[in-house]
Every structure is written in structure tokens, then in C-alpha cells.
Amino acid sequence: MNLRRPLLLRLTTSVVAAAWLTWSPPARAGGDRKAPNLRRDPKVIKLDRRQAMLVPLTIHVARGRESRAETMHRIRLAVARANEALEPHGLTAVVHKVWIMPSGYSEITSRRAHRRLADYAPVDGTVHVFLVDRLELGSVFAKDRGVRGMHWRYRGLSKRLQGRQYVVVNVDAPSTTLVHELGHLFGLGHDRGRHNLMCSCRRGVQYFSVSQGFVMRREARSYFRDGLRIGIR
User: Which pLDDT does position 139 carry in this prediction?
Assistant: First the structure.
């Protein structure tokens, strides 16, 4: 499959990505309530931003229910909210590219559909994030199949797909969904604390603990190191 987009589209998406990166509104969670300033939370140790590890994101937009402007606004909010939680732990998410997906990928409801997305998530030193209209786990055994986001990793034997993984988020998911799934990508499981970002019941002030930050930094280094090793084969 030829995955290259026309030059005009690539230039357009790059310009759009650069434009919104120069302006980000205050991160918000739970409607109009301003998100808490996690940098002042006593349970979080703030690291020197100059030592932060960059987490480049390749955003794949596969949606049809809202305008592109609305989708880009959601991306700004999600990335800003992610950095509220990540930066105190020495990680900073940045948008590397924004791609517009072809038709046929807006609803991901089966294992086959999840694997099709992997064709667009090469091991290239970035974290691939897909925005879709509808997302399901794709398991016939799951009672509640509809989800707001998930981290997918290829676990088969195909050499072509070795090392591929991505994050997929429903476009109408809360702004904390992206950072929750990035937590999974970087080695975190669910947490029972209702103020923890890795709890599905999260409420109020939401943050990563110091120990979670340590795990994410360690796994992020491993993610990008392993990606380089696989990519040069």
C-alpha cells in the first residue's frame, strides 16, 4: 500500500501543526473547570525542563463527524493536558507531524481493524496517535466493548510488524485520555487511586506519582532506543 500523501497535503498539515503549537490554551479537564497546576502539587517532584525527554507525536486524523478545526482544537487540549502531567516528571510531548488518514479508518471495532492501523505506525522514533470516531476493543469476550482510548502493541510473529505499537483515542474522549494511554505505552498499569491519571475512576486533581514518573522515563528511553535498533535493520 502506498502510504505517501501528496506534497501539498504534507505541507498543509505541517503548517497547521506548527501554527497550533505556537499557541496553546490553558489545559482543562471536566468541562470548563481549569485543570489543576500539577507543577505545584506537593506529591510531584519538578525536574529541570532543560533535561526533559521529548516525546514526538505523529497524529493520524481519521474522523468524519467533526470539522478539522474542531479536531485540531481537541489535539491542542489533549497535548497541553498531557504536558501538565508529564513535564513535572521530565517528559514533554511535542507534535511531530499531523496526517489526514484516507477513508475507511474512522471506526476501529475489530482486531483486523486494529492491525490495519499498524500499517500506518512504522517504527520511526515517534509515538503514533490515531484519532477515530468510534473505538472498540475488538474482542468478542469483552462485555463493554466501547472504549475511549487504548494502547495497542503487535505481539505476533510477522517481522514486518515487529515492534509496532500505537495509541488510539476516540475524538470525543476527555482530554486526559491521551496522557492515560501514553502512560500505558510507557509501562504503567492501572492504579486504584481516584486522583491518579491511571485510574479509570479518576476525579479531581489528577497526576502521576513520583514512582510512576520514574517508570515512564525508564520505559520511554527503552521505547526510543529499541525503535532505533529495529528501524536500522
Answer: 66
Alpha-carbon distance 111 to 137, whole Å? Answer: 8
Q: How far is CA 153 from CA 64, 106, 165, 189, 222, in A?
A: 25, 19, 4, 14, 15
The candidate with the shortest Cα–Cα distance to 25, out of 152, 175, 153, is 175
111 φ/ψ angles, rounded to the nearest 5 degrees: -65, -40
> Does residue 49 sit in helix, strand or coil?
helix
Which pTM does this prediction carry? 0.76
Write the pLDDT tens digit of every residue in 157-189: 999 998 999 999 998 899 999 999 999 999 999
User: How crowded is the C-beta side of 97, counted as CA atoms within 13 Å?
Assistant: 17
Q: How far is CA 75 from CA 13, 67, 113, 174, 219, in A?
A: 13, 13, 23, 11, 24
Residue labelled with grid coordinates 484516507: 102
Look at the alpha carbons of 115, 121, 124, 128 in this order and tell me if their dihedral is positive or negative. Answer: negative
Could you say which DSSP state residue 93 is in? E
The cell for 209 is 506519582
d(CA 173, CA 22): 24
Q: Which residues pair with 92 in a beta bridge?
A: 54
